[in-house]
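INTERNAL AUDIT FORM
Audit reference: QA-55
Scope: verify that the stored structure record matches its stored sequence.
Auditor: D.O.
Record contents follow.
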Amino acid sequence: MINTERLCLGCMNDNGGEKICPVCGYDSTQHNPSDCLPTKFVIKNRYYLGKVVSINGEGITYIAWDKANDAVVSVKEYFPKGFAHRNPDKTVSIISGGEYTFNEGLLEFMEINKVIMDSDLPALIPVIDVFEENGTVFAVSENIQGITLEKFLEKNGGILKWGQVRALFLPLIDTIKGMNDLGIIHRGISAQTIIASRDGKFRITDYRIRKQRLDNSEQESELYAGYSPIELYGFEDMHDDTYTDVYGISAVLFRVLIGNVPAAATVRIQNDAMSIPARFAEELPRHVLASLANGLQVLPEKRTRDIETFKNELVYGEINEAKEVKRPSKKATAEEEVEAPKKKKGGSAKYAVISAVSTALVFAVIAAVLVFGVFRDEIFPPKEDPNSSEEVIIDAPEVDNLGDIESGAEVTAKQYSVPDLKGKFYQEIIENDDYEMFEFVISDKAEFSQEVEKGAVCGQSVAAGTQVVRDTKIELVLSLGKKEVKVANVIGLDEINAKLELLKQGFLYQNIEVLEKYDEEKEPGVVVDQQPKYNEEVNTNTSIKIYINSYKGNENLEGTSSER
C-alpha cells in the first residue's frame, strides 16, 4: 500500500511529497473551497481526497486515491447548490425548507450511479462504488483521462469524416440506448459531455439528476445551447423522453460532420430556416443526412422517437421512402449553400420538397424534415445593437421652469418597494434580477403552513410593500408544508418510488425506515406493508416504515420480517 503522504493532491502521482508537483504543478499548500471537503479528508475509511475537480448545481467532484486498490479515482459528492450546507464537522445538512428537493435529488443521484455501476455498457466511465455517508451520497468512478469532444475536434481540423464517425460513435449510440432502456435519460448530450479518452475511445459522461437539465426548475440547471432540445426549456405541454437524447446526439453528429452547432432550439422554434453547405450534402450519405434531419426536428412529436430507430436510419439507412433524400444530377461548388424554405406562419407547418435550382445542390427530405445550416450569421443577420453610438433624438416635453435647489436640502436615498415573496422558492428569488437590490437570507426557523407548499417562502421579515433602501436584508421563512397529512398508499411501489411519494408529502428522508417482509402472493421487490397505514393522519415528523417484499419469485423460504 502506497504512503498517501507522498501523493500529489492535484494528480495523485507519487511525487515524493514535493510542495510543488513536478508532474502537474499543483501547490500542496492550496485549499479546497470552504463549502467542499478539505484535501486529505478520508471517506468510507478508504478514499483519500485531493483537490476539487469541478463544482456544479448537483455536487462536487474530487480527485482521490482508493487505498483499497491503490488507484486514482474520481469521487462525486451530492451537494445541490442552494439546498445543502456544510457543517463544521464536514457533514452535510439540508437548508430548512429544501428537504423534499434535496432528498428527491439524492434518491435520483443514487439510482443513476447504481444503474451505471451495475451496467457494462461500452462507452460509460465505470462507477465502482455508491454509498451514503456524512448526510449525503458519494459516487466513486474510475479516473479516465481525456479531453472533451469539442477540444478533440479543435485539435483535429474541426470536423471528422463519416467513415471515422461511424466507428467512433456506434458504441456511444449503443450506450445511450442501453441507458434509455434502463430508464435513464441523459438530457445533456453535447460536445462538452462526451470525452475522447487516452485509449482512443469516446465516452459519454455527466449523467445528472433530471432537474439539472430543466430550465426554470428550483435547482441550478445547466443546458447546452444548440444541443438541448426545446422540451428542456420549460415550454408547456412538452415533456422530455427518449427523443430528448435523440436530439442531443443528432446535434453532436451535426457538429462533428458539418463543423458548427445547430442554432439554439429557442431560436429555431421561432425561425427554423436552416441550410447546409453544398459540399457536405454532396459528400455525406443521404441516409445520414436524413437521419440527422429527423433527429433534429424542433417539435418533439415530429422527431425520431428513440435511439434504436435513429441508429437504424443513421447506420443502416432504414428510412421510409417518403422521407428519402433526393439528389439532383447537377453538381454544386463547395462554396454554394442550399437554403431552406422559410417556415410558414402558424407553427407546425411541414416542409416542402426542395428541388434542384441553378448550381446549388439541394438537400431535401419529405414530410417534416429539416434542412440545416452552418453559416448562421449569414442566415440570421445579427440584430442592430440598441446601444450603438448612432445618435437617437427624443423630443422632450416643455416645462415652465425646473425650479431651484435649496442649499440646505438633504439628499434622500432611493427607496425600493419590498415584493411579496410568499409561495416563491429561494432559488427562484435569488436568481430574479428584479430583486437584486435586496439581500435575502433564510431564517433558521421554518414553519408549517396549510397554504404554502413545502420549501416555498411562507413568511418574510419585511412586509411586502414596505419602502426600504438598497441592500436591505430580508429574512425568508420557509414552509415545512402541512403539519398533518394523510399518509399516501405506497403498497405495490418499488423502494425508490415509495420514498418519493412519502417525500412529496413532507416526511423526512431520515425518518423513512426500510424493512423486509416475505410474501409469496405479491410481486418481488415491492412494498407489501407500511406503517402508519394508508390514509392515517399523522405529523410529517413521524417515522415511517415500509416493508419490501424479500420473496425472489422462485424460492420456497419461510416468511421473515427483519431490518435491512
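Auditor finding: record pair retrieved intact. The CA atoms of residues 123 and 365 lie 31 Å apart.
Action required: none
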